[in-house]
Design a protein that fits this description.
The chain has two domains: 131 residues, HAD superfamily/HAD-like (Rossmann fold, 3-Layer(aba) Sandwich); 70 residues. The chain is 50% helix and 11% strand. It has ten helices and five strands, in the order E-H-H-H-H-H-E-H-E-H-H-E-H-E-H. It has a five-stranded parallel sheet with strand order 3-2-1-4-5, with helices on both faces. Helix 9 links the parallel strand 4 and strand 5. The longest helix has 19 residues. It starts with a strand and ends with a helix. It binds magnesium ion. The site of magnesium ion (MG) has 7 residues, from loops.
C-alpha cells in the first residue's frame, strides 16, 4: 500500500483565486496600463495568448516567458507573488485532510506545474508547509510538465508507490493512471468530470485509516 500521497495544488488544495489574481488580473492590468487599452481588452488578449500556448506546454507555466511575450519584463515577480498571496484561499477540506494523513504517518508531496516562486509562497502562507514533506515544481525543478508521463515515472522513482490527487482530468488522473499510479480526479465545481471523480478530499482522508 502506498505510504505517500501526492497532491496537485491550484484547484485541488487551494482555490483558483491565487492563479486568477496573477494571470487574469495583475498581468492584464499591467498590460492595459502599459498599452493604454481597456482592461477587458487586455484580459481577452492575455487569455487568447495563454490558450494559443496551451497548458501542455512548459512555457504556459513560466512567468519570465509571459513577461517577455507581453512586453512586461520590468514587472517585479515579487509584486505578482504578493498579489496572488493576497487572494490565496484553501478549500475547507485541505488542511484537515493533510493533517489526518500526516498524523497517520503518510508522507505528503505537492506535485504541481506551478512556478517555484508561486509554489513556495502558496505553501508557506497557507500553512500547508506544516504537513508537506516535499514540494515539487515539475516545470522549474525538473523542466517537465505533468502532461508528460515521464514526470509521474520520476515521481515514482523518487518517492516509491504514491497516490496522486488533482483537479486536472488529464494531467492529474489519466496520465498518472497510465503509468500505474492510484490517481483520483477531484472535481471542484467546474470543468470536465467522470463518474469516478471525487468532489471532496474525504475519500483521500479515509485512506489514512484503511
Ligand atoms: Mg490544478
Amino acid at each position: 500500500m502506498p505510504s505517500t500521497v501526492s497532491f496537485d495544488l491550484d484547484g485541488t488544495l487551494s482555490t483558483p483565486s491565487f492563479a486568477e489574481a496573477v494571470w487574469d488580473e495583475a498581468l492584464p492590468g499591467a498590460l492595459a496600463r502599459r498599452r493604454d487599452m481597456p482592461l477587458d481588452e487586455a484580459r481577452r488578449y492575455c487569455r487568447e495568448a495563454y490558450a494559443a500556448e496551451g497548458d501542455g506546454s512548459i512555457r504556459w507555466y513560466q512567468l519570465p516567458y509571459w513577461l517577455m511575450t507581453l512586453g512586461l519584463e520590468d514587472l517585479d515577480p515579487g509584486d505578482l507573488v504578493r498579489t496572488g498571496a493576497a487572494n490565496l484561499r484553501l478549500f475547507d477540506d485541505a488542511l484537515p485532510t493533510l493533517a489526518r494523513l500526516a498524523h497517520a504517518g503518510m508522507r505528503l508531496v505537492i506535485f504541481s506545474n506551478a512556478a517555484r516562486i508561486f509554489l513556495d509562497a502558496e505553501v508557506a502562507l497557507s500553512g500547508l508547509d506544516r504537513y508537506v514533506d516535499t514540494c515539487i515544481s515539475v516545470t522549474d525543478d525538473w523542466g517537465m510538465v505533468k502532461a508528460d508521463p515521464r514526470s509521474f515515472e520520476r515521481l515514482l522513482d523518487r518517492h516509491g508507490p504514491v497516490i496522486h490527487v488533482g483537479d486536472h482530468l488529464r494531467y492529474d488522473y489519466h496520465v498518472p493512471r497510465a503509468v500505474g499510479i492510484e490517481a483520483y480526479h477531484i472535481w471542484r465545481g467546474s470543468g470536465e468530470r467522470t463518474a469516478q471523480s471525487i468532489t471532496s478530499l474525504a475519500p483521500i482522508a479515509r485512506i489514512a485509516s484503511r
